[in-house]
Structure formats: structure tokens, C-alpha cells
């Protein structure tokens, strides 16, 4: 018969599944960071006019109601991928905070659309990821310079 303490005590698996950035491997981190960086640029800085750049977030966000919701869902996908890469909880919280600011401000008619063009939540989130994974970011940069 087991005692109450035995039933409530945590069990320790002698061979836990590796988690976090070390479990992915450097090459996988580089590929994911490169893909997420391209997505963030598409969303926040793909097009340019003299003086500033904007992306699909600024264009799709013009659609009342659903535009900001669609862009928030895509942005959350970047956060989910960051979690899969092993980003720390504090980094993920900051990323979500950037999306919330972008979505709430973007919901305000006209002024929100202007804010949406200048507040680049996805690029900010990629900067957070680059700080989280500096080795992968350095390799992404070195490959980009070679092109």
C-alpha cells in the first residue's frame, strides 16, 4: 500500500527529454530564426516609400475589425515558434506584450492605422529573439552578408 506522501511526491524521470535551445541544435535554430526574420520583414518592412518602410501588417490592418485580428494571429505564430525554439518565458511575455500594444492601438480608427505602420511589433520580437539566441543570429547575419 502506498502512503499519501508517496502518491503526491513528484517522480523524476532518469532520462528526461531535452528541452530548450540546446535540444534543437544550432542549425535548426539558425533556420528557424532566418525564416521568422523573413516573415517579420514581410509583415513590418517589406515595402518602402521615401522616409519609412511598412509591411503587410500596415496594409491588412486597414481592414476594419478583422485586419488587426488576422495580423495578431500571425504574430502570435511567431511567439509560438519562439517557444518551440526554447525562448525564455520573460522573452515570450515581452513578445506578447508587443503584439498586444500593436493590436490595441491598431484597433483605433485612422490613428491606429498610422501607429500600426510605425510600431513594428514583429521586428521588435525578432530583435528579442536575436538577443535570446546570439549565436544563431550571428550566423544568420553572416549568411546574409555573403548574399
UniProtKB/TrEMBL annotation:
Organism: Parvularcula bermudensis (strain ATCC BAA-594 / HTCC2503 / KCTC 12087)
Source organism superkingdom: Bacteria
Polar residues composition-biased segments: 1-12
UniProt region (Disordered), positions on chain: 1-26
Transmembrane feature ranges: 59-80, 92-112
Keyword annotations from UniProtKB, A to Z: Membrane, Transmembrane, Transmembrane helix
Pfam families the UniProt entry points to: DUF4112
The name this protein goes by in its record: DUF4112 domain-containing protein
Amino acid at each position: 500500500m502506498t502512503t499519501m506522501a508517496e502518491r503526491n511526491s513528484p517522480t523524476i524521470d532518469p532520462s528526461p527529454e531535452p528541452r530548450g535551445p540546446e535540444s534543437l541544435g544550432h542549425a535548426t535554430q539558425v533556420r528557424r530564426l532566418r525564416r521568422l526574420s523573413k516573415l517579420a520583414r514581410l509583415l513590418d518592412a517589406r515595402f518602402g516609400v521615401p522616409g519609412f518602410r511598412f509591411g503587410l501588417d500596415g496594409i491588412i490592418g486597414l481592414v476594419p475589425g478583422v485586419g488587426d485580428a488576422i495580423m495578431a494571429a500571425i504574430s502570435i505564430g511567431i511567439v509560438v515558434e519562439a517557444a518551440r525554439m526554447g525562448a525564455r518565458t520573460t522573452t515570450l511575455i515581452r513578445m506578447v506584450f508587443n503584439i498586444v500594444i500593436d493590436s490595441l492601438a491598431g484597433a483605433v480608427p485612422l490613428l491606429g492605422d498610422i501607429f500600426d505602420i510605425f510600431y513594428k511589433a514583429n521586428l521588435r520580437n525578432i530583435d528579442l529573439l536575436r538577443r535570446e539566441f546570439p549565436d544563431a543570429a550571428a550566423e544568420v547575419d553572416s549568411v546574409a552578408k555573403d548574399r
